[in-house]
Amino acid sequence: MKRSSPTKGFSLIELLIVVAIILIIAAIAIPNLLRAKISANEASAVSSIRTIQQAELSYTTSYPNGGYATQLSNLGGATPCVPTPGNACLIDQSLAGGTKSGYFFTAPGGNPVNGANTTYVIGAAPITFNQSGVRLFCSTEDNVIRWDANTSKSTTPPSAQQCPNFTALQ
Question: What does the pLDDT look like over 94-146, one tens digit per residue?
């Protein structure tokens, strides 16, 4: 009589153990991945605010009769771009459109004197709170970037009235 050889392959228990280990690793890794994405988006938002600050300075130098840009879109322009006060070609079109790396951006000019904006406020808020970002960021013509912990879970960029109350970024 011929003996049968042992079956080749994995038992159901072995497969369940492997699946359980994979699920445990995923449960540990996914929250860390989300936090890393939020940190990257927030760093990008701060960098974008610095870019807008430089663009505002260039804009007011290039178009002194208008002062600071009336709105964020005035700082951009579609390619090929020809600089005008309405499309200054100073920032990329995606940022000029108001969204980049999980954040909404605004940069309205204000306090017009003789038709020239003498102030501006740059605001940045996460598109989806706790997924694309957490904190709010802002800056005014003093070029100090400020942040807020956003306990209200807002997705609206801060205004000129809110910005001075935020904490200066170190």
Answer: 999 999 999 999 999 999 999 899 999 999 999 999 999 999 999 999 999 99
Helix (H) and strand (E) counts in the chain = 2, 7
Closest CA to 136 of 122, 126, 144: 126
Q: Using CB atoms within 10 Å of the CB of residue 2, give its burial: 0 to 12 exposed, 13 to 18 middle, 19+ buried.
A: exposed
Chain centroid to CA 168: how far? 17
Q: Which of 168, 43, 41 is nearest to 101 (CA)?
A: 41
Cis peptide bond upstream of 80, omega within 30: yes
In sequence order, what E strands does the chain have?
Answer: 99-100, 103-106, 109-113, 116-126, 136-140, 145-148, 167-168
The contacts of residue 168 (CB under 8 Å, 6+ apart) are 144, 145, 146
Is the distance from CB of 34 to CB of 26 less than 8 angstroms? no
pTM of the model: 0.83
Spans of all domains in the chain: 12-168
Separation CA 169–CA 90 (nearest Å): 24
